[in-house]
Amino acid sequence: MKAAVRYYTRSGNTGKLAKAIAEAVGVEALTTDVPLGEDVDVLFLGSSVYAFGVDENVSKFISGISVKVGKVVNFSTAALVKSTYGQVGKLLAAKNIPQAKEEFYCRGSFGPMHKGRPNEKDLKAAAAFAKKVVNG
Ligand SMILES: Cc1cc2nc3c(=O)[nH]c(=O)nc-3n(C[C@H](O)[C@H](O)[C@H](O)COP(=O)(O)O)c2cc1C
To answer: Domain map of the chain by residue range?
Structure first.
């Protein structure tokens, strides 16, 4: 199964998840500045919430996808909302790209909130999740 990891991070929280996921599935974690260069079976796409919306880097990346993507697996961090699954799902639906039902989400530090998150436990859980997605 061919996998790829793309993510957008401002303060590094989602970037930590991206690196744990990429290492677990044996690919490089690249930012949403790097377009997909070839078809993939599964794209792990990481994002977070800023003032209730995903960053426009994420929407630009999705609208620029020009290869075949089997499914997108969402992963995200946020301080208050549950995840970016719904917002990213709408962007994917506009491009007819399937979004997997499974996702990975954990709290991300924001000022005094959720200090240290994602923590080691979160990163281990993200890695285990990614392995399960790829290996079944
Ligand atoms: C400007 C700004 C606005 C934010 N707005 C929200 C928000 O509306 N809802 C929420 O759950 N978290 C919000 N957060 C918290 C981030 O989603 C959280 O810190 C996340 O882990 C950041 O991920 P990153 O370090 O990968 O960019 C906000 C953070 C910033 C910096």
So the answer is: 3-135
Cβ(14) – ligand 1 distance below 6 Å: yes
Q: How far is the CA of 110 from the centre of ligand 1 (A)?
A: 6
- State percent of the chain over pLDDT 70: 100
Question: Which listed CATH number (3.40.50.2000, 1.10.510.40, 3.40.366.10, 3.40.50.360) goes with 3-135?
Answer: 3.40.50.360
Long-range contacts of 21-24 (CB under 8 A, 24+ apart): 21/46, 21/75, 21/104, 21/126, 21/127, 21/129, 21/130, 23/127, 24/126, 24/127, 24/128, 24/130, 24/131
Q: Does the pLDDT value for residue 80 go beyond 90?
A: yes
Task: Give the mutation target among 31, 48, 82 for probing the ligand 1 site: most ligand atoms within 8 A of CB.
Answer: 48
